[in-house]
Specification:
mainly alpha; Lysozyme; three-stranded antiparallel β-sheet; 8 helices; 5 strands; 51% helix
Length: 180
C-alpha cells in the first residue's frame, strides 16, 4: 500500500491537472498553516550552494548558475552571461516556491519551522519529488521524528561513492530538522 501511495503522490506532482478523487491527496485535516522558508534557511542554502556568477556543471552534469539554479530549456539567455548576487538570490527564492508548495501539500502534521526548513534545503539539493516520495516524509507524517531524521543520511552518495560535502550538508540539515 505504501508503494502505491508514493506512486500516486508522484503522479499527482508530475500531472497536477489529473483529478484527485480524494484517494491519497486529501487536504490536511485540520488545515495547517501554510509554511514558508525562513530567512535563516535561505541564507543556509546560499552558503551550502555557493554563489556562481556564470554557468557551471554540477556533479550530475547539469548546467546550473547562481545558488545551484538548474538551467531549463527556455533559459538559454544565461549562456555566456554573468549574474549578480542579487539575481542569484532572486533565482533561489523563485526555485524555493514550488518546493514550499509541494511540502505544504504533502506534510500532513504540524511540522516545526526548523523541520520545514531542513526539508526545503534537502529538496533544493535532491529534488522535491524525491523528498515527498521518501521514507523521511512518511516517518515525519507518522510522528516518528527521530526515525525521519536518520533518513537524511540516505542522500550522501553520488552513485556508490560517499561524498564528504554531501555528508556535511545532510548533518546540517538533520541537525536543523531535530532542532539542534
Amino acid at each position: 500500500m505504501q508503494l502505491l501511495t508514493r506512486w500516486l503522490r508522484s503522479v499527482s506532482l508530475l500531472f497536477p491537472s489529473l483529478p484527485n478523487h480524494g484517494v491519497l491527496m486529501a487536504k490536511r485535516n485540520p488545515p495547517l498553516e501554510y509554511m514558508q522558508t525562513s530567512e535563516y534557511a535561505v541564507e543556509m542554502i546560499k552558503e551550502l550552494d555557493e554563489y556562481q556568477c556564470s554557468i557551471y556543471f554540477d556533479a550530475q552534469g547539469l548546467a546550473v548558475i547562481g545558488h545551484a539554479h538548474r538551467i531549463t530549456e527556455n533559459e538559454h539567455d544565461y549562456i555566456g552571461k554573468k549574474i549578480t548576487r542579487q539575481e542569484a538570490h532572486d533565482l533561489l527564492l523563485k526555485d524555493l516556491r514550488p518546493i514550499e508548495n509541494a511540502l505544504n501539500r504533502f506534510i500532513q502534521v504540524e511540522a516545526t519551522q526548523d523541520q520545514f526548513d531542513a526539508l526545503v534545503s534537502l529538496s533544493h539539493s535532491i529534488g522535491v519529488t524525491t523528498v515527498v516520495r521518501s521514507n523521511l516524509l512518511m516517518y515525519l507524517n507518522n510522528g516518528e521524528d527521530a526515525r525521519a531524521a536518520e533518513e537524511f543520511y540516505r542522500w550522501i552518495y553520488l552513485g556508490k561513492k560517499m561524498i564528504p560535502k554531501l555528508r556535511e550538508r545532510r548533518e546540517l540539515e538533520r541537525g536543523l530538522f531535530m532542532g539542534d
